[in-house]
Design goal:
77% of the residues lie in helices and 0% in strands. It has helices at residues 8-26, 31-35, 38-59.
Length: 60
């Protein structure tokens, strides 16, 4: 697991963001409907998770 040291959080966050964007593009909802969908929360959580991880890494 030394290969993934410090990268696991970014991988998980990237998968969360990618999943949300794919569901928006493949689904039959409009952008405005997406804002009320739970997948929008997943998108924001993934972006926030990556931002927090980057901030922690920069602070060290």
């Amino acid at each position: 697991m030394n290969i993934l040291k410090g990268k696991k959080t970014h991988i998980v966050a990237g998968i969360m963001v990618l999943k949300s964007i794919i569901l928006l593009l493949v689904g039959d909802m409009t952008l405005f409907q997406f804002f009320g969908d739970p997948n929008f929360n997943t998108l924001l959580t993934g972006m926030g998770l990556s931002t927090v991880r980057a901030g922690i890494a920069k602070g060290r």
